[in-house]
Amino acid sequence: MRRRAVIGTTLAAAITLGLTACGGGDDAAASNTVRVTLVNHVWSENIKKALPEFEKQSGLKVEVTQLGEDQLSDQYNVKLNAGSSDLDVMMYRPLQEGKLFASNKYLADLTDKAKSDGAFEFGDFQAGPVQATTHEDKVVGVPIITEQEVLYYRKDLLEKSGFTAPPTTLDQLKAQAAKVEADNPGVAGFVSRTGKAAAVTQFSSFLYSFGGDFVDASGKASVNTEQAKQAYAYYGGLLREHGPENVSTDMSWSEAMAIFTQGKAAFYTEANSLYKNATDPAKSKVSDTVGFAAFPAGPAGSKPYNIPSWALGINDASKNQDNAWKFIQWAAGKEQALAQQKAGVPGARASVWANPEGTATFPKDLAEATTASTANGVGHDRPLVVKVAQAREIVGQPIVDAITGKDSAASADAANEAFQKFLDDEAK
């Protein structure tokens, strides 16, 4: 299959951490040295600290290359396109480059390894993240870090307005936002991302909860269905009618979070992974009044995204795939998953969320909201395509139009036509 560029064009210098002595070149790939490429992340730091234990147990040696996201993309761009075998285990983003990697056959088929390994308990992984690391019914990755969309809210403002609990439906969210806003001049009822591309991920939970999706069961664009149009109108209307005064249409999470943490909004929908920005007194003026709840239900129920932000895969060109799998068995196994979660890294295994040890470091209501989100979560928060950034620009336009009061239904029709053309072009 023709190999396409991954992301970026310049190969950044790799920061290689030789944890144990090893040889170089392809000969090392067939040896007891497993070469693992990781991104700069808390998960990676935790794994590196635990590596001596794995090396002792397995008799293998591990060589880690750790890079920033852009450098990682550049590394993959060069090596995967060249068919290099000197990558064994790869940490990658399933929703950003997963389809590209899988369709270009960069990722080894792990189906037999994952499903025949009883000790690994692949069935313990949540359905949503597994959906995102599966391509054409083949397991091509193992999810290790997850995110879910939850509702952040101000306990004090709800109490002041006479509400004894946060909203459980989108209708209640709108009603409570309006009441709290009326009772507190200068405070918006609701805030969330507004940027055309940035908002797509958080809008996705609204789309699913209204019964829609970016594509239908046959793979055709579906952002102009009645359900999708209702979701666009709701999300945009909530921000237009109850959002911050003179709300901009280019806010990403940092700007929206700042409004919430400065005490200028009552409700905020966002990824649970960012919660410490709201609960840390050094970052938030409302840290002692923040509560968390499961994503409110729409006409189709509560269907927030439940996604793997990072996963582990094996380079299909690797000559060391059996030993690479041994590393994944350990790094994504139950013991390490629990240790990571206790360190504040939300995992993809159901067992760690059911284990009190696994939720002890999270605020109690956040742990409950997250657990609820994993039950009905959808495994993607953006279109599952190769050119993700371009797709987000297309399907995000009706969000902006709805916020600014334009005809969002007509905008959805235009976006659907453009998105279908995009899908047709990508399929060529």
What do you see in this structure?
- With 428 residues, this protein is of the alpha/beta class.
- The chain folds into 2 domains: 15-146 and 308-376, Periplasmic binding protein-like II (D-Maltodextrin-Binding Protein, domain 2, 3-Layer(aba) Sandwich), CATH 3.40.190; 148-305 and 382-427, D-Maltodextrin-Binding Protein, domain 2.
- It has helices at residues 25-29, 42-58, 69-81, 98-103, 111-116, 127-132, 155-160, 170-183, 199-209, 226-242, 253-261, 276-279, 321-331, 334-342, 350-354, 356-359, 364-376, 388-403, 408-427; strands at residues 15-17, 33-39, 61-67, 89-92, 134-135, 138-139, 142-154, 188-191, 265-271, 290-294, 306-314.
- The strands form 2 sheets. Strands 1, 2, 3, 4, 7, 8, 9, 10 and 11 form a 9-stranded mixed beta sheet that branches.
- Helix 2 links the parallel strand 2 and strand 3.
- The longest helix has 20 residues, at 408-427.
- The relative contact order is 0.17.
List the helices and strands and how they pair.
Layout: E1 15-17, H1 25-29, E2 33-39, H2 42-58, E3 61-67, H3 69-81, E4 89-92, H4 98-103, H5 111-116, H6 127-132, E5 134-135, E6 138-139, E7 142-154, H7 155-160, H8 170-183, E8 188-191, H9 199-209, H10 226-242, H11 253-261, E9 265-271, H12 276-279, E10 290-294, E11 306-314, H13 321-331, H14 334-342, H15 350-354, H16 356-359, H17 364-376, H18 388-403, H19 408-427
Parallel strand pairs: 2-3, 2-4, 8-9
Antiparallel strand pairs: 1-3, 4-11, 5-6, 7-9, 7-10, 7-11
Signal peptide: 1-21
Pfam families: SBP_bac_1 (PF01547)
Keywords: Signal
